[in-house]
Design brief:
704 residues; alpha/beta; DNA polymerase, domain 1; OB fold (Dihydrolipoamide Acetyltransferase, E2P); eight-stranded mixed sheet; seven-stranded parallel sheet; 24 helices; 41% helix; globular; binds adenosine-5'-diphosphate; binds magnesium ion
Length: 704
């Protein structure tokens, strides 16, 4: 048998039935460049053509079915726009009416009474008679032996493709041509015999054939399992082999001492007891930084679970060992807030802490840059500004990235490169991410999880209200302000540049003013178009309690901490994603008092929006919310996946294939334990395929 390799690399226009024009379209519209790309263009659904029904067997409420028979009559009825074609289709058990509203004359011309046909369509009951409108229709003799009686694949196509007659059916024909061409070709195996035996996997070739034209549902499932397993296996292999390589290659700084700063802070500065989860996580980090390799660790924890303190204590370990540190946050507000809350304690320990953001300029900036390079700053807090070439350190030993989902791998590696021996890295998430996603997007990192909230937190009460209830909601806010609390009112600002969103915000601000100012309450406003000094000024007023209400856009989404605020009112809540809603809600519930979150929406929500509101009112658990989010939106849309640089997925779905992912990852771990450099004879197939995928990934750029 010839090998599949060369044939599969053939450019798609050379497939019988394609040609240059259609080839171009396939490349541009769906990224099918080669035979292999077409082979990997999987159906999204199947229709059951495994069974031929008799007309006499038709019952109400059947799905689409296949019938075989002849047309005995074809009559045009009506005229003009009401023109239709009514046929009588007959087999040896009965007759059924078939109706067309479009393409009438063409269909009438092409159907022959001498010919036997196979119809595929859904029977509906009309005036006590079954009929089928616009069925798929094929000459019985044309139904190729090869894939007759199989599940029939449906493929996604675009409007432009359909306009050139490449619809799902046409695509399935092309796939059929390709599969027939590959029938005598051998496919190289890319997994080991052990793995194939252990999971009873289909061979590659069988899987590829059965994913397009499965004989039955069971075969389809097995094919899909094999391909998903393979896909997830190689994603994990890519991540974990990189990680294992890094661990072997880079000698990190071993932080041998847990010195006086850490002890002093722990004994004198902490005004609460750490939760057990925080203690455990600090231990994990300490141990990891001691071992002499470079730490790359993800810290997951729900909003308000106390990740910052873990970061501070890790920073202190680094400084105790004679190194500089930095902490990068995604927004100026958050960087400023970290600076304010962290620096006070650290100043009193005699440490040098500075902040560097885009708005720090001139001589102040020069001074910071110079001191950092001279090793005269212990902790540099900042935004993206930290990534700039000019920012240098004398001896950078530890890096914290807060709210990692706002940054990508590129930024992470920029920070790491700021020292010859790479510094230890701790990345923190804003909200929990589902485990499957964490294993994939952050699969090359070790993970620590804070799964426990500080004691005494009251869970936030969440309500879903529509605009009709606005007066009562405002009344409730007034009551709470009378009791001495403060409130956030947040408007969606999905796109920074959208004029409409700003108009909404400003309208909202005015109506809030009308409703609350006459009571003598003061109102702050903060949004992305304000200068950062003005924003900071407003935030400060609210923080100090000089204003009672903060009207804002999602700029306050991350990390802002005003414990006296106990109400979060979210306007047009249906426009926010679940992760954002959960983040926003996390701005309250930071003090001892009962807190509230009100989700204000229009009436008549879509099913998904309703599900989001329902989830929010039912649970405060960020891990649960993240799972629902993944199910509703699918992994492609979840923040972080786009920048993660991971291999694109063609068939596996992180929302539903968690179990397969676990198994695939376990196989990878076993493999790397046995053969860290993937060089043993029996692993050559795996090694070769991984290399091929990596080059294809580069090629992927040509599509987007
Ligand atoms: P996040 O994980 O969302 O970044 P933070 O680190 O901002 O949360 O912590 C939220 C609040 O909880 C802060 O005010 C912090 O001081 C407080 N906090 C953290 N750990 C504890 C603890 N063990 N006991 C009591 N309060 C804590
Ligand atoms: Mg935080």
């Amino acid at each position: 048998m010839p090998s599949s390799l060369n044939i599969l690399l053939t450019s798609i226009e050379y497939l019988k039935g394609v040609g240059p024009a259609k080839g171009d379209l396939l490349k541009k519209e769906v990224g099918i460049y080669t035979f292999n790309d077409l082979l990997n263009y999987y159906p999204y659904r199947y229709i059951d053509k495994t069974h031929l029904y008799k007309i006499g067997e038709i019952k109400p409420d059947m799905p689409s079915i296949q019938l075989k028979g002849r047309f005995t009559k074809l009559i045009e009825q009506g005229g003009g726009r009401k023109k239709r074609l009514v046929g009588t289709f007959k087999d040896d058990t009965g007759r059924i009416e078939v109706v067309w509203f479009k393409g009438v004359s063409w269909i009438k011309k092409s159907i022959k009474s001498s010919e036997e046909y196979i119809l595929f369509g859904k029977p509906t009951l009309y005036k006590n008679q079954f009929n089928i409108t616009h069925p798929d229709i094929e000459k019985a003799e044309d139904q190729e032996e090869q894939f007759a009686n199989h599940l029939f694949p449906l493929y996604h196509t675009t409007e432009k493709m359909k306009a050139k007659y490449i619809d799902s059916k046409a695509l399935s024909k092309l796939v059929k041509v390709l599969l027939l061409e590959l029938k005598e070709v051998s496919f190289e195996e890319n997994l080991t015999v052990q793995i194939i035996d252990r999971y009873k996997l289909m061979t590659r070739k069988a899987a590829v054939f059965n994913i397009h034209f499965p004989k039955n549902e069971n075969q389809q499932k097995r094919a899909s399992f094999r391909l998903k397993f393979e896909e997830l296996f190689f994603i994990q292999l890519n991540l974990l082999s990189a990680k294992s390589y890094r661990k072997r290659k880079y000698k990190g700084h071993p932080f041998k001492t847990v010195g006086p700063l850490f002890q002093d802070y722990f004994e004198h500065k902490l005004d609460f007891d750490l939760t057990n989860a925080q203690k455990r996580v600090i231990k994990e980090i300490r141990k990891d930084m001691l071992l002499g390799h470079q730490m790359n660790r993800l810290l997951q924890g729900d909003v308000g679970s106390g990740k910052t303190i873990v970061a501070i204590m890790s920073i202190l370990i680094a400084i105790d060992n004679g190194f500089q540190t930095c902490l990068m946050a995604p927004t100026e507000i958050l960087a400023a807030q970290h600076f304010k809350s962290i620096s006070m304690d650290l100043f009193s320990l005699g440490l040098k802490v500075e902040i560097l953001t885009g708005s720090i300029k001139g001589s102040k900036r020069d001074e910071i840059l110079q001191r950092s390079a001279a090793g005269d700053i212990d902790l540099l807090i900042g935004t993206h500004a930290l990534l700039e070439e000019k920012v240098k350190f004398k001896k950078l030993g530890f890096v914290v990235i807060d709210e990692q989902h706002r940054f990508g791998v590129v930024q992470r590696s920029k920070l790491i490169k700021k020292n010859n021996i790479p510094p230890h890295v701790l990345v923190m998430t804003a909200t929990p991410i589902p485990r499957t996603l964490a294993l994939t997007v952050y699969g090359d990192l070790d993970t620590s999880v804070i799964d426990e909230m500080p004691p005494g937190r009251k869970s936030i009460k969440t309500f879903h209200r529509t605009n009709a209830n606005r007066l009562r909601v405002f009344g409730f806010i007034k009551e709470q302000i009378e009791l001495g609390f403060q409130a956030y009112i947040v408007y969606p600002l999905i796109e920074e540049s959208s004029k409409l969103d700003y108009a909404d915000l400003m309208d909202g601000y005015e109506s809030v003013c009308r409703a609350f100012q006459k009571e003598g309450y003061k109102i702050s406003v903060a949004h992305g178009r304000m200068k950062s000094e003005d924003k900071e000024f407003e935030m400060q007023r609210f923080f100090k309690g000089e204003t009672q209400i903060m009207v804002a856009t999602n700029v306050i989404e991350v990390g802002v901490n005003v414990p006296n605020a106990n109400i979060m009112l979210i306007e047009s809540a249906e426009r926010f994603g679940l992760a954002q809603l959960h983040q926003l809600r996390g701005r309250v519930g930071r003090g001892a008092a009962q807190s509230y979150c009100v989700l204000m929406t229009k009436e008549g929500l879509s099913k998904d929006s309703f599900m989001r509101m329902k989830t929010m009112t039912e649970t405060n658990d960020g891990f649960k919310i993240a799972e629902v989010d993944l199910k509703l939106r699918g992994p492609g849309d979840i923040t972080g996946t786009q920048q993660s640089g991971m291999l694109p997925m063609k068939i596996a779905n992180l929302a539903t294939d968690g179990r397969i992912l676990q198994e695939a990852r376990r196989s990878v771990v076993d493999l790397l334990e046995e053969d860290p450099s993937i060089s043993k004879e029996k692993h050559l197939g795996i090694q070769k395929y991984l290399k091929k995928l990596m080059t294809e990934q580069v090629d992927w750029a040509r599509i987007s």
